[in-house]
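Researcher: I'm preparing a figure for a lab meeting and need a structural model of a single chain. I don't have an experimental structure, so a prediction will have to do for now. The sequence is pasted below. Please return the structure as tokens so I can convert it later.
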Amino acid sequence: MTIDVKRRIRRADAYQQHHAWFGFPFAVVKKFGDDEAGNLAALVAYYGFFSLFPLLLAFVTVLGMVLHGNTDLQQRIEATALARLPVVGEEVSRNVHAIQGSGLTLAVALALSLWAGLGVLRVMQKGMNTVWNVPYHHRPGFVPSVVRALIMLVVLAVILLTSAAAGIAGAGSQTWWGVALGIAASLTFNFVLFALAFRVLTSEDLSWADVWPGAVFAAIAWTILQALGGYYVSHQLQGASQTYGTFATVIGLMAWLYLGAQMTFFAAEINVVRRRRLWPRAIVQPPLTEADRRALTYYAKQEERRPEEKVDVLVQDRASAP
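Model: Understood. Here is the structure written out token by token.
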């Protein structure tokens, strides 16, 4: 029985190494595990949970300043944008209000909210550099890291507003093509957001051609996640709230953020495997494939922590005798 199982595994291994439709997804999953991207996603979900509300406070405040005197449009944009948080969207819309104050007080409060919200974007930078196995001495320092996070925050705000405007236009349409156009516009904005994020949030030198496959996957997966999140809240979380109260909302939000972060890192891994041709990977080792050797080399060189340090890698199919 044992021999038969091993034989079947080797057959499956040989098949996936010669068929890209099977070998490529396996290589993405394997690299996702090698990078411990699930742990990175948990870290992003943790910081995302504490960054979400300060960012929403800043968003609502700035929106009120820009659309001062047009309360109806302001409320519609807020409602459409917050609806993209299916777990807590309605709850947040009732409790998040613009920061009050004038002059220096308002500026300080807004700056503190933005600073608190930058935490999740800086953690995403760390995660993206880990996914690309960027050596530690090539990763940005404190100031460049904050600048990148601010750039991505501005891009996120602009795309969120334009996506919300597209959602309002689609919701106001009474025809199927109008709704379809709104969905297509939202998908397009999501694609642009992820493409920019995959380029800006890593120190790896990338082109648009390097990031578009993962951006397409992430845009579609994010849209599905939003729909499933709404279904989850409607059918599961409402009943759980009767038992767990507020904790059910917290757990639901954390789970949603974690799934979103996992999806984002998986999409980034697609870009890495495709650009560096890290497939096919071997299920049964040894022997190692050339893609295995390249991946192991990147993992080792990632540990270079100083410009004076250089890591040389020797990959053997079998461990040397002690």
